[in-house]
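User: Um, any thoughts?
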Amino acid sequence: MAKPPATPATQLLKARKVAFTARPYDYVDHGGTGRAASELGVDEHAVVKTLVFEDESGRPFLVLMHGDREVSLKELARQMGVKSVTPCAPEAAQRHTGYLVGGISPFATRKPLPVCLEKSILALPRVLVNAGRRGVLVEIEPRVFQELLSVTPVEAGR
């Protein structure tokens, strides 16, 4: 596969001198992290999905979660100290991040968004997260999330 084109996310990683490896794969609509993990020959637990949520006031935020786990909405809201959280509609997610659903990266979003990071992700040696384009992940050390993003560690996976 040819070298994937640069995205705002990969440009930010390069500018901040973050070591990363672009990992392109054959994207399929609704294939999710399972498809990416299978294509790349990695454990789905190490593929981090970037989810866009909003609280009851409509404030958007990101959640970084293991690919093989779901987010407990009740637990996430409790840990954030809000009444409720809901996933954003695809159009709203794209508007908030500037990325297409299926290609949303936590890096270089259209506007800076708060990020909730599942704590156990930090225990992994390397993770793969979307590079800002459908069909391309970047492999990085999880500490990069803490170094480049305003993260709140949470335990909201199930």
